[in-house]
Amino acid sequence: MTQTAAEPAVVAPPSPRSTRPRKPFRYRKAIAIFIVPFAALFAAFYLTPILYAVFQSLQKVEREGTFGAPTQVFGGLSQYALVFQNTEFWSSIGRVLLFGIVQVPVMLLLALLFALLLDSPLLRGKRFFRLAFFAPYAVPGVIAAIMWGYLYSPSLSPFSAVTSRAGLLDGGTVLWAVANVVTWVFVGYNMLIIYSSLLAIPTEIYEAARLDGASQWRIAVAIKIPLVVPAIVLTAVFSVIGTLQLLTEPLVFRQFTSTISSTFTPNMLVYSTSSVPNFNLAAAFSVVLAVATFILSIGFLRLTQRKADQ
């Protein structure tokens, strides 16, 4: 039995890609010129405050004796333990969640209805209505709250015969009085986002539906609304974030009624705690509120994406 000599291994020729000399990246400096200013501002005004808030939430103030000088030392998670034991904080979280569950769907439903009306060929005077719906958003939140506060107040309102009986600033209704102001201000803003999405739909789809005999109502329900769902989800996420940041309207309404306390919303509790001043506990409140907002927003996005995939 003879043995054959082993054949020499075939060496693959080097690919031209590996041997090709790399060209110098020509636009490196130009990209750096555009990115560095943004990165510097992003780090200075976004990341640094967040990191400073987290740092402050891990500190605590100690005194030597009753009248000793305050000293800030590392406190670990002691401030977060106070946050989770604070019943007023969790009551305010529950209050704004109830606010969001009722107010956000009503506002988005009105925004969708107004956007569909503006996109309908049956409506006349679209420029007037577009400006009329959007005009409240141009009013600063403080001015809007003062204006509605005067209208709600039984002693100041020109409709005192109605407001004195309705009790719009009483403890059981003041939350919905605030919701009315927020809806009045932001429904036009959300309407424009949905309306812009409607304008991006190709007109050929509408023409094909009309050739098939579809009415305007059928086109709105079967074509327009399903195609603007991403825009509705976007406005919903913005509204969820804005709900947990509710501050201006209830803070102004405190001048008109005593039913709104300094802990009515989470942001009011953070503001009042920092005014004591107890910056460490206020920072811990802020961090927990930011994490809750992030979890709610991401959870809502995941839920809507899962339903869309089904």
Please name the defining characteristics of this protein.
single chain; 310 residues; mainly alpha; two-stranded antiparallel sheet; globular; disordered N terminus
Question: How would you sum up this structure, described in words?
Answer:
- The protein is mainly alpha-helical.
- It has 14 helices and two strands; from the N terminus they run H-H-E-E-H-H-H-H-H-H-H-H-H-H-H-H.
- A two-stranded antiparallel sheet has the order 1-2.
- It is globular, with a radius of gyration of 29 Å.
- The chain starts with 15 loop residues before the first helix and ends with a helix.
- The N terminus is likely disordered.
H/E series, N to C? HHEEHHHHHHHHHHHH
Rg from C-alpha positions? 29 Å
Q: How many helical stretches? A: 14
Helix content: over 70%
| Average of pLDDT | 87
Structural class: mainly alpha
- CA distance, first residue to last residue: 67 Å
β-strand number: 2
Q: What is the strand content? A: under 5%
The major pleated sheet works out as: 2 strands, antiparallel
What order do the strands of the largest sheet run in, or round the barrel if closed?
A: 1-2
Q: What is the multimeric organization of the chains shown?
A: single chain
Query: Which regions contain 5 or more consecutive residues with pLDDT less than 50?
Result: 1-6
* Shape verdict: globular
